[in-house]
Amino acid sequence: MKVIQNYIDGKLVGSGREFADVNPAEGNIIAQVTEADSSLVDAAVQAARKSLRGEWGHLGAQERAARLYKIAEVIEARFDTFVAAEVADTGKPISLASRLDVPRAAANFRVFADMIKTAGLESFQTETPDGKSALNYAVRKPLGVVGIITPWNLPLLLLTWKVAPALACGNAVVVKPSEETPATATLLAEAMQQAGIPDGVYNVVHGFGPKSAGEFLTQHPDVNAVTFTGESQTGAAIMKTVAASVKPVSFELGGKNAAIVFEDCDFEAAVTGISEAAFLNTGQVCLCAERVYVQRSIFDRFVEALKQKAESVRLGSPLDPATEAGPLISAKHREKVLSYYRLARDEGATVIAGGDVPRFGNSLDQGFYVQPTIYTGLQESARCVKEEIFGPVCHVAPFDTEEEAVKMANDTKYGLAASIWTTNLKRGHRVAQQMNAGITWVNCWFLRDLRTPFGGAGLSGIGREGGMHSLNFYSELNNICIRL
Ligand code: NAD
Ligand code: 6OH
């Protein structure tokens, strides 16, 4: 059986404790993972600290950028290996991992290499009371050791989204990938070695959250900052832990995202777009639209067209290039999603499509599949309309006026993403600017430019990453004031 190990100070490190890595498509164990105890987490943090005093700590931005480009090249050279590892861990279709996850991992390194090479800082000429002046300018320094904790839905994409800017800024990192998807973080360690990243700069500790590697990392006194992507409740727990040592945090958390479809939309494009927004990655993208508001004049036609889409999503083996949707991540997560499918019925929903578990008549029946599901008819106060489900499911509700649609879309404690579907340019701008969301897409969804601010309002997060926002989070800016 394959063993996935921790990676500390340039070496693969085992431990006395292992846990199983399960393939969600067939429910079988594909590897054992070594769980890092507190002494291994401590060793990883100390290795990271030590690396900052060595070669890595003395490299300039140009040289760090050169190594980041090299990491991107290694990921691309080993594209099939990364895709296979991600597909085996997550059950996502090979077509999706090849189109989204692995190319984005390489792009994450390239974009932050580009940015650190050209990033400037502000300076001010300051007038002083004696009629003379002073010059203020800022210098960028690394924070030190950054703890990175990531979820299972886009494991390599979300990990590298944080590792790349952290390294670009000269930090060393200790990453704790999700216990559900450990493989690509350890695989990335090989890419780091090949790209000439010194030992100790990138460390991986495997394990769970509470009383395991996740918590050991966030409570470690020598970790200078914590960046986390995952559930809002977990963010709250981490915030409590880090409060004791006052570390900077960046949190990318959950969502209950709205889509608004106006009667003047490009109908086919909107149906296709909402189908993607609801069902991509089996609905396991924080940006997915679980609440869809459709103008009443096109409501019935839209629901019917979306039903056709949901029923034509090709579920199957992740390894089949024709498969469009794989399973959910785990038996536990499927139980959660199915509990919402039951709740929706109890809350009085009309089931338009899906609502159940598919049957394949082969080994995939041991996997964690659910049908793409559409509901209508729920009250806006229903739990299924308020709570993040994180599965391939949306509720579609009618609206009459633009004002009403904006009000319904914003009636949430989350504030991550929204999408608006209209051919009226003025309306697109007007409605987008009223959304309480970190990102609003108009006539598209999950179209990313990595230089833009990314993050959420309310329960969806703290801070922004992306572009200069990432560079500023992963840097300590020191201002220097010189009397002239
Ligand atoms: P999760 O919060 O359960 O776990 C995320 C990570 O945190 C895992 O590595 C886990 O081991 C670790 N963890 C759990 N408890 C911890 C603790 N007390 N201390 C330290 N670490 C701990 O999230 P998940 O189920 O893996 O991912 C799905 C969630 O992530 C959804 O809510 C989704 O919306 C959110 N998400 C948000 C974004 C975003 O960019 N806003 C992106 C992807 C996923
Ligand atoms: C959540 O599941 C998706 C997050 C996406 C990003 O963080 C990104 O940078 O595209």
Give a short synopsis of this structure:
It contains 16 helices and 21 strands. It is of the alpha/beta class. A seven-stranded mixed beta sheet has the order 15-16-17-14-13-18-19, sandwiched between helices.
Give a description of the structure.
This protein is an alpha/beta fold. It contains 16 helices and 21 strands. The model has no long low-confidence stretch (mean pLDDT 98). 40% of the residues lie in helices and 22% in strands. Helix 3 runs antiparallel to helix 5 and helix 5 (94-118) runs parallel beside helix 6. The protein has helices at 38-53, 55-58, 61-77, 79-90, 94-118, 155-168, 183-194, 213-218, 232-243, 267-279, 296-312, 331-346, 383-386, 402-410, 425-432, 467-473, and strands at residues 2-4, 6-8, 11-13, 18-23, 28-34, 123-127, 133-142, 145-149, 172-176, 202-204, 225-229, 249-252, 257-261, 289-295, 350-353, 373-376, 393-399, 417-421, 439-442, 461-462, 475-483. Strands 15-16-17-14-13-18-19 form a seven-stranded mixed β-sheet, sandwiched between helices. A six-stranded mixed β-sheet has the order 10-9-8-11-12-20, sandwiched between helices. The structure holds nicotinamide-adenine-dinucleotide and (2E,4E)-2-hydroxy-6-oxohexa-2,4-dienoic acid. Nicotinamide-adenine-dinucleotide is lined by residues 149-153, 158, 176, 178-179, 208-210, 214-215, 218, 229-231, 234, 237-238, 252-255, 286, 388, 390, 416, 456, 460-461. The site of (2E,4E)-2-hydroxy-6-oxohexa-2,4-dienoic acid has 10 residues, from helix 6.
